[in-house]
Amino acid sequence: MAILTYREALNRAMVEEMEKDPLIYLMGEEVGHYQGAYKVSQGMLDKFGEERVIDTPISENGFAGIGVGSAMVGLRPIIEFMTWNFSLVAIDQIINSAAKMNYMSGGQFPMPIVFRGAGGAGGRLAAQHSQAFESWYAHCPGLKVVCPATPKDAYGLLKSSIRDNNPTIFIESEVLYGSKGEVPEQEYTIPLGLGEIKRKGTDITLVTWSRALSFAEEAAIILEKEGISVEIVDLRSLRPLDENLIYESVKKTNRAVVVEEGWPVAGFGAQISHLIQKNVFSYLDHPVERVTQMDVPMSYAANLERMSLPSANRVADTIREMLR
Amino acid sequence: MVSSIPKDSQSVSELQEFYRQMVLIRKFEEAAAKAYSVGKIGGFLHLYIGQEAVGVGSIAALTPHDYIVSTYRDHGHALARGLHPNPLMAELFGKATGISKGNGGSMHFFDKNAHFMGGHGIVGGHISLAAGIAFASKYKKEDSVTICFFGEGAANIGSFHEGLNLAAIWKLPVVFICENNHYAMGTPEYRALAVKDVSIRAHAYDMARDHIEGDEVRKVRDHVKVAVERARRGEGPTLIEVSTYRFRGHSMSDPAKYRTKEELEAYKKKDPLMRARHELELGGIKPEELDKLEIEIQTQIDEAYQFAETSPEPPLSQLHKYVYAEDK
Q1: What residues of B are in contact with residue A106 (Cβ under 8 Å)?
Q2: Chain B nearest C-alpha distance from A224 (Å)
Q3: Do B132 and A56 touch (CB under 8 A)?
Q4: Which residues contact B201 (CB under 8 A, 6 or more apart)?
Q5: How many residue pairs bridge chain A and chain B with CB atoms within 8 Å of each other?
Q6: Chain B nearest CA to A57, separation (Å)
Q7: Chain segment A229-261, per-residue pLDDT in tens
Q8: How far apart are CA A13 and CA A50, in angstroms?
Q9: What is the DSSP annotation of B173-225?
């Protein structure tokens, strides 16, 4: 077992896949000569050359479209958005082109493309650089949406995403790039749509993904000292969604909280909350609760940012309230 | 009408073939308009009538392994590519036998085998897709060229700038063909274009450019061919502006009240079909022969209509099919 950072795990996944399949290329701003804005593509230019690790001008709509067009004729692009905030100027290509190409062509054009890059909130980056967009993309049929929380998951899920014949939204957590974890040395993949119980417990189920897993884990440790046993379901991908894993856990604990980095209104947690009440309603001892970012753009001020983000304390308070 | 007389039997038969394709497009669309008016075709229906020489001339400059990316006004391009009218008409009718199995409709004709890479409904969004297909040809070291049609309205959206800039810096084998029909829906070009001649924008990307009138089909073919060969030699993209005119409104729901009858009549005098027919007659083809050709094509279109009408609707099980592709 090697100890790798989240970014190293992503790098290893891309390098291994590109070594195997010459149709895969990496494209984005600063992915080559600069070695990646967040250094996820460090060393890849030397290994694969400028034909396969391709720097672009600042033009997300344009190079997202290049990726989609090239995937129509058999290439397998990995398109890096420096951050998902910038993906919004490419959202037409992602939704109107990539997500629908196979459907509107009657199955003629599979779309083996990965859009990946840094997402999430924090680090005092303020309103335009500090937001979680997985709910936006998870809204759209035709896309797969993957949000890994650990180096081990990041590696296995990115490999699966690259091998998938569908457009995958692979949102990396900017805050987690330096986080370390064990990654098996033997090659492995993690199927998209397979969540994982990250912690076993009996009193309440926390459903989460990506960086919010850390808030959930921290809250579980706090509550353990108070005699409350928390089970944590890490979804790992929102589309496809491991619904049964959620239901089995809720059947056991009878209570659920969704913890997510994004905004509450029309957020993905609302979908999970609906699914739980629809499918395992009779097991519930309490309405499903949610801990999200506050319903405001992100402030730069340190204290306001702290207050806006979900936190272990907010998760713990919510759970205490539910068990009272 | 200034006419060029086909000089030899080869150029006569070539023009005759172009004429056949243009008549096919016109009659196909007239039949589609009829079907639309009686409710057999739904959604939007944007007709190409008047612009036939652009699609036919441009696509004649290609080989079968070249790629075509089209707009929401894609019927003419698909027919010029040689796609059979039956599955195209069936697509308009939303039938299982449609070219996109009924999932696409008028704006989304696709035929992978014919390298017909789609009609696309978001104005200008497909310009960078075309650059991407050309990027793939270069990546795979294949000598295919991609041509991309769009209207002058699309030249004002960001995707145009990004697509052309990327194609230029990477010298991608792509030809951008702006079919300037002078109206973006109801907005005339003088209210939308700071510089009237779209092709001049090529200078901003250090790109080759061309500007032609779109009523003479062989001229369109000759000019596009120069650009296609340039792209194939690895010398990069070209922006060609072809001035043309749609005789109908933007779509079937548009009575086109924003333009004058006089203007329409003036353009109708430059109808590319009339022009080609006149030239064929000057080249020695008898009018009766051309009438016969038109009747044959009408029969073919009638058959397509019949085929579309009698084809089954897609099975309901298709609703959830194709959202995701099968695993690798």
Answers
A1: 98-104, 110, 322
A2: 42
A3: no
A4: B155, B164, B195, B239
A5: 151
A6: 8
A7: 999 999 999 999 999 999 999 999 999 999 999
A8: 19
A9: SEEEEEEE-SEETTEEGGGT-SSS-GGGGGGGGT-EEEEEETT-HHHHHHHHH
Would the pLDDT of A122 be above 90?
A: no
B8 lies within 8 A of chain A by CB: no
In the 3-class helix/strand/coil scheme, how is A118-159 assigned residue by residue? Answer: EEECCCCCCCCCCECCHHHHHCCCCCEEECCCCHHHHHHHHH
Of the candidates B133, B134, B322, the beta carbon closest to that of A107 is on B322
- The three-state secondary structure class of A240 is coil
Pick the closest to residue B57 from B211, B216, B212, B182 (CA basis): B216
pTM beyond cutoff 0.90: yes
| φ, ψ at A156 (rounded to 5°) | -70, -35
* Residue of B113, B160, B324, B326 to mutate when probing chain A, most A C-beta within 10 A: B324
Domains detected in chain A: 2-183 (3.40.50.970), 196-323 (3.40.50.920)
Tokens describing residue A107? 């199955």
Mean pLDDT by 10 residues, chain B (328 residues): 74 95 98 97 97 98 98 98 98 98 98 98 97 98 98 97 98 98 95 95 98 97 98 98 97 94 96 97 96 98 98 97 85
State the amino acid at position B286 in one-letter form. K
- Find, among B122, B23, B37, the residue nearest to B76 by Cα: B23
Q: Do A106 and B101 touch (CB under 8 A)?
A: yes
How far off is chain A from B328, nearest CA to CA, in Å? 6
A51: its two tokens: 């034909």
CA angle A210, A215, A219 (to 5 degrees): 145
Q: What is the ipTM of this complex?
A: 0.96
Cα dihedral sign for A258, A262, A264, A266? negative
Which domains can be identified in chain B, with CATH numbers? Answer: 9-307 (3.40.50.970)
Task: Take residue A300 and report the two structure tokens written for it.
Answer: 């730069």
Select from A288, A216, A192, A209 the least CA-distant residue to A247: A288
Residue B210: strand pairing partners: B240
* Contact with chain A for residue B119, Cβ under 8 A: no
Token code pair at residue A67: 């990726």
- Contact criterion met (CB < 8 Å) for B100 and A104: yes
Annotated active-site positions of A, please? 60, 129
Q: Does B272 touch chain A (CB under 8 A)?
A: no
Kindly state the tokens that stand for B130: 């075309």
Q: How far is CA A110 from CA A103, A113, B83, B261, in A?
A: 9, 9, 21, 46
B268 secondary structure, DSSP code: H
B99/B232 Cα distance (integer angstroms): 29
**Nearest alpha-carbon partner for A56 in A23, A13, A25, A22:** A25
- Calculate the dihedral angle through the C-alpha atoms of B15, B21, B25, B28, rounding to the nearest 10 degrees: 130
